[in-house]
Model the fold of this input.
Amino acid sequence: MTNNHHNSGTLHILNKAPEHPRFAACLEALSPSDTLVLIENAVLACASVPLPDQSLALTADIKARGLTASCEGIQTIGYGDLVQLTETHTKIISW
Amino acid sequence: MTNNHHNSGTLHILNKAPEHPRFAACLEALSPSDTLVLIENAVLACASVPLPDQSLALTADIKARGLTASCEGIQTIGYGDLVQLTETHTKIISW
Amino acid sequence: MTTLIIVDQPPYGSWAGREALDMVFSLAAFDQPSALLFIGPGVNWLRTHQTPAELGQKSAEKNLSAASLFGVESIFADQSACEQYRVTQERMLPGVALTSNIQKILNAHNRVAFAG
Amino acid sequence: MTTLIIVDQPPYGSWAGREALDMVFSLAAFDQPSALLFIGPGVNWLRTHQTPAELGQKSAEKNLSAASLFGVESIFADQSACEQYRVTQERMLPGVALTSNIQKILNAHNRVAFAG
Amino acid sequence: MPNSVVYTLVITAAPWVSQAPQTALMFAREVLLAGHHIDRVFLYGEGVHLASSLSTPPSDEVNWSKEWSQFLNQHKIPATVCIASALRRGIIDETEQSRYELAANNLRMPFEIAGLGEWVESNLSSDRVIYFHGAS
Amino acid sequence: MPNSVVYTLVITAAPWVSQAPQTALMFAREVLLAGHHIDRVFLYGEGVHLASSLSTPPSDEVNWSKEWSQFLNQHKIPATVCIASALRRGIIDETEQSRYELAANNLRMPFEIAGLGEWVESNLSSDRVIYFHGAS
Done:
């Protein structure tokens, strides 16, 4: 999270629950060099579906939903880290 | 559509597109004696997914979406027919 | 004549679940029998250890815990959705009846509604 | 720098698609390059013979037909969604480019957004 | 009329977002045409926006709030807006305006603000309670 | 500051319906903390309800409209409400009130009503345009 150089991949910000059609659409659109941040309802995926390696999840949303124990396999970040990711990625898609 | 005696099955009114999780939930909940009415976005199912025999669809919604030709396999009804179905069914679920 | 209210939206991301609970609380306040059914991602309401302070929202868990106090007859949950979301027995609010037959629950209630 | 607006909601049942089109029309009005991508049930925007008079809504088909007049660069649609919803070539608005590679379309545009 | 049925209609989604208020209006007209009775229309959740007096769609579009209001007035059908849903969403009548010292009110006539108790009562007094939800 | 980035934030979903305005506010605070700049906040579609001056949640709940308004005032960030979205949904300022002869206005300060042209301009003048959508 600390490097300041620009990333050529796309930053995908996903806030939908895994059942929402846009969840699958987002995962299909992911290229290997992209980064995926799960926020809001999307963090429920940590407990339920396999996620690509380049996935991160917002800590506050995980804690709210009682998912801290279920999300041990995924890197969690704060709102400030999310800002930093939007700084290092020139291209961002909110799903 | 003309019988006036009460129907013991449930009338299901479904307005979600086939991708919406509630669409599948509704179809799973359908008992053989139930009736399903597709309205609004749900009429898109006529063009895309197999539907149970007890399905009806609202004509106005089909026409709006240019689906008249695609919906030939399904019985279509007007708003007045829908009212009549709510009259003959004592139990109704809107999905 | 028990009214069954279905919750299929998860907490925090939207208000739909809270508005479903308000319906159930109102029925109870007027001594009308009511029950709740959680399906799909709605079962995430039932997980314990929710700590939403950082989001600035009140706890959905506490909100729901009031249900049995307020006189809601039954709280049902779809077993396969609970398994899918790993809402296991030891991480689940007490008093929830798991079901693998939604159709049966729906047929057992005369009035069935979603909040939105 | 072309802005790509994605539509994944069908017409009439919600306003999301119309608000996506308004974004594209605004870009065009200010001479900014824009494109549209229809995915999922959003491809139902592209079907001809829409007659919504009975619903009291304006035609989504006519709304979209204005897109090329207003200077929208490209209209893309997901081929498999078109097949799923039987939006066949003879029942499709003219000027739509079918794609089987959404990722490529997204990568070709610097700014990509949904209306809601 | 022996076969007359008493309906309550509940609308939970907003105009210009969903088709729910439109479908509900088409349905309501046919209910009356069939000789039935509408006990009450209840707006809940996002549905409360239908009761805004300030909605101003383009002049070539139907104003669903106005259409509903005319229908309710014409047939003297009571229409209730859930108070908890309305306050959060900024749908305010004169009483709430003065209670909360707000600068304006925006509840369209003949809608009235009241609690979910009215919905509970409709559940008891109506033969059918029909819900009109949003599509998303 | 060589690494300062200029942001536009677009909110397309309403408070007390979605989490979008909350997430957007947390994000916006961190943008400023990181030394970046917010060029504009743009409310579109359902997001325009965030600009209602009449939202009155229960006193033990956060008032997201008020929180946003205080944040915008404190940091002198321009906030635009899309006029087409706002008029349909009954979010009205004094100008539109008199233009359409409406009984009230309900736009919360410092939000201003303007066209999508402001969004187009932000697309050109900002380094990043970040969207906050609803979850349903």
In short: Helices of chain C lie at 16-29, 60-69, 79-84, 102-107. Chain C has four helices and five strands. The interface with chain F takes residues 9, 12-16, 55-58 of chain C (CB under 8 Å).
